[in-house]
UniProtKB/TrEMBL annotation:
Annotated residues for binding of Mg(2+) 1: 90, 106, 110
Protein name in the entry: Nucleoside triphosphate/diphosphate phosphatase
Lineage: Bacteria, Bacillati, Bacillota, Bacilli, Bacillales
Domain DUF402 stretches: 21-159
Keyword Repeat: no
Annotated source species: Jeotgalicoccus saudimassiliensis
Length: 178
């Protein structure tokens, strides 16, 4: 049995993404924990090594703040680029955390948000294929449909990581630690 832990502020952790069948999907080698509670983890990374399930490796191009919440089936990556903040939102299980890593199950669907606030739902075809192939239960499908709606509300109302103050505070905090 894996014991849940709360990441300590200032510590470095890996992020491990899995698929529904339990296979590893993607691993980010290092994220600095900026805030860790029993419900929320906020981290920052820059030029971080990412390893894909097929062994392919790449390095992130820009600083990013990552946001995980225990009560929601999504996580958010806020990427700082020259032309503004882009958000990449993964529909996923709520995170789990142990001494090894922050972990979640990636459920294929993503929402990309542009600096002007426009957003697009991505990878619906991939979701359909994996839902069939990995036998996602109807209950998961219903949760994810609801969470897509919830996430769109957060984006439209600038809630949570989409709030301008969130970006200012956590980007500043991450920069001051690096």
């Amino acid at each position: 049995m894996v014991m849940e832990s709360i990441p300590k502020e200032g510590s470095k952790m890996r992020i491990q993404s899995y698929k529904h069948d339990g296979k590893i999907h993607r691993v980010w080698s290092e994220t600095t924990i900026l805030k860790g509670t029993d419900h929320v983890v906020i981290g920052g990374n820059n030029r971080t090594l990412v390893t894909e399930s097929d062994g392919r490796k790449w390095v992130t191009r820009e600083p990013a703040i990552v946001y995980f919440h225990k009560d929601f089936w999504f996580n958010v990556i806020c990427m700082f680029r020259d032309d503004g903040v882009y958000y990449y939102c993964n529909l996923s299980s709520p995170y789990a955390c142990d001494d090894e890593a922050i972990k979640y199950i990636d459920y294929d669907l993503d929402i990309k948000v542009y600096p002007d606030g426009k957003y697009h739902l991505l990878d619906e075809d991939e979701y359909k294929v994996h839902r069939s192939k990995m036998n996602y239960p109807d209950s998961i499908d219903e949760i994810l449909k609801h969470q897509v709606d919830e996430l769109q509300q957060w984006i439209e109302h600038k809630k949570g990581p989409f709030a301008p103050d969130f970006i200012k505070v956590w980007h500043h905090r991450f920069n001051s630690e690096h």
